[in-house]
Write a structure and sequence with these properties.
Layout (H helix, E strand, L loop, with lengths): L1 H21 L7 H17 L4 E2 L5 H11 L2 H4 L4 H6 L8 E2 L5 H7 L6 H14 L11 H8 L6 E5 L4 H6 L6 E6 L2 H16 L3 H9 L5 H10 L5 H8 L20 H16 L5 H4 L4 H12 L6 H7 L12 H8 L6 H14 L7 H8 L5 H7 L6 H4 L27 H7 L3 E5 L2 H6 L6 E5 L9 H14 E11 L12 H4 L2 E3 L1 H10 L7 E7 L2
Parallel strand pairs: 3-4, 3-6, 4-5, 6-7
Antiparallel strand pairs: 1-2, 7-9, 8-9
Helix pairs in contact: 1-2, 10-13, 16-19
């Protein structure tokens, strides 16, 4: 353990030196370059290396695809077209350092030195747990995708909520990927719990009420013996406070991670200004919610301190917003970030009943509203209105019930589907482009990109859509969200690729209005037409 701590300190010091060296001007002294090279070689010698035969050489794959993926080949969707798209042989790659994939994803091609330093800082923050709950509304996703039992879904995992919610509709297969090892571990833990917990009461308590001491027993008895070694190692490891991460399940995991800490800081600041969110959470009418926003929350955004903080990109790192996405977000209000936040918070507070919005509960209450669900399940019973759909139930994307302030996958009436279908999920640490390129042509029916494209430069974006188009089955659909209002694909993705996809503009606008999380400016649906 002593050796591990010393190595971690050395890595931390080396990162500081690297950032400092990158911020020097062109006239920097040569000894800074020598220092950088020394640190780089030292890190390489200390890093633990091992092979992962399931990964492919991405750079070679992209090069091969770029040279063969021309407009003539894209003009048809015949078997001959797919045969012409020869895939490179799979090779063994060195497993990257836990933050290397994230640094690569965040890095943009044309960035100033200041912007590059901000990118590096964000990558460091994003390498740990960020989202214990994701902020994409599953009802909107399900309405857009129209999942059935024949579909293969490829999705970015994030905190794993979307993966679990999609299981309600019994797809044939879900492939979940993420660059962040913490998100991979959390998603695998949710899948493991669905497979091994004895009943819904245990499953609900572990993830909906994660501040119970009894959760330790559930973890030791049902998670530890059945979890994969990599995820088990993550939870048994220690965070920056030297506490084992497995304690998150008894110490409220929704207060942990980058976003959880950020929300905690926001609550501290609002209390400093005399705002009590319990007034909002106890509101019984939409008028009371609007009154709270107008009188209590909106005036906060006019405070000089708040305005100054939100004018700096690093202030929103806690929301998981990288510098490139911050720029897109600010453009929604001509650079006035406080006004953008006002618009999004107004939607979160006022556009949906508070008792049907678990995103608002997490933002303003730092928990779920679990009372209705617990009453419904008391002594193993279910609400009469839900009894007919308590087994083999599915969501059509427009359903809300008495448990609207709880994610669908934690609601009693959907538990059996979650447990029955958990075996259909595969979770791995990789980029979604790499994962798609390892799959057969025409094998993917639905792709969920969350807001990942906001991070990407044009080259990365085109590589991704090359892979999506190659693996798209007939009538495949792609959904994603953007910080700004408009889709970011037009004018950036090559026309010979994008012309094979139909943008469902009206449906996208309709679903944007329905998205209860209110974090994003736009929801977008594309359908494969070739």
């Amino acid at each position: 353990m002593t050796i591990t701590i010393k190595m971690n300190r050395l890595f931390f010091i080396s990162h500081i030196v690297v950032i400092k060296a990158s911020s020097e001007t062109k006239n920097s002294k040569p000894n800074n370059l020598h220092k950088f090279q020394y640190i780089k070689s030292l890190k390489s010698s200390l890093r633990l290396k091992y092979s992962n035969p399931t990964k492919i050489n991405t750079s070679k794959t992209v090069t091969a695809l770029s040279s063969t993926f021309d407009s003539q080949q894209l003009s048809t969707r015949s078997t001959g077209y797919k045969n012409n798209m020869t895939m490179p042989a799979t090779t063994t790659l060195e497993k990257p350092h836990k933050a290397k994939l994230i640094r690569k994803a965040v890095r943009q091609q044309e960035r100033t030195k200041k912007q590059s330093i901000l990118d590096q800082l964000f990558a460091q923050l994003f390498s740990g747990l960020v989202y214990s709950q994701i902020w994409e509304d599953p009802l909107v996703d399900l309405e857009a995708m129209e999942i059935d039992e024949t579909h293969h879904i490829v999705t970015i995992a994030s905190g794993g909520c979307n993966v679990m919610n999609y299981l309600i509709n019994s797809p044939a297969r879900i492939t979940a990927v993420d660059l962040n090892r913490a998100h991979v571990a959390l998603t695998r833990t949710k899948v493991c719990a669905a497979k091994n917990f004895p009943d819904h009461k245990s499953f609900h308590q572990f993830f909906a009420v994660p501040n119970k001491r009894e959760n330790r027993h559930l973890y030791d008895q049902y998670i530890m013996p059945n979890l994969d070694a990599t995820s088990k190692l993550y939870w048994q490891g220690r965070d920056k406070t030297f506490r084992r991460r497995s304690r998150y399940f008894t110490d409220n995991i929704y207060h942990r991670g980058l976003l959880g800490n950020f929300i905690g800081i926001c609550h501290f600041m609002t209390r400093f200004y005399g705002v009590n969110f319990n007034q909002l959470l106890s509101a019984t009418t939409m008028e009371q919610q609007k009154e709270f926003f107008d009188k209590k929350l909106s005036p906060l955004l006019d405070k000089k301190l708040i305005t100054w903080l939100t004018s700096h990109p690093a202030s929103l790192y806690g929301l998981g917003i990288p510098p490139a996405q911050y720029t897109a977000l600010a453009e929604c209000a001509d650079g006035d970030m406080a006004e953008v936040l006002r618009e999004r918070l107004r939607k979160l507070c006022c556009d949906y009943p508070i008792n049907q919005n678990y995103f608002a509960w997490q933002a303003f209450g730092r928990s779920y509203d679990t009372m209705t669900n617990l009453q419904a399940e008391k002594l193993g019973t279910v609400h009469p209105a839900e009894k007919s759909q308590s087994h083999n139930s599915s969501l059509n994307g427009s359903q809300l019930n008495d448990n609207g302030a709880l994610p669908p996958y934690l609601q009693f009436q959907h538990y059996q589907n979650i447990a029955d279908n958990a075996e259909r999920v595969d979770v791995s640490q990789a980029s979604i482009t790499d994962k798609l390129l390892s799959m057969p042509a025409g094998s993917v029916d639905r792709v969920v990109l969350l807001d990942a494209q906001d991070w990407m430069d044009d080259k990365t974006l085109n590589e991704l859509w090359h892979a999506i188009t190659y693996t798209a089955a007939d009538n495949a659909r792609v959904i994603f969200r953007t910080a700004g209002h408009d889709s970011i694909l037009e004018g950036r993705v090559k026309n010979e690729i994008l012309s094979k996809w139909s943008y469902q503009r009206e449906k996208s606008a309709e679903l944007t209005k329905k998205d209860r999380s209110a974090i994003y400016g736009g929801f977008h649906l594309y359908q494969f037409t070739s």
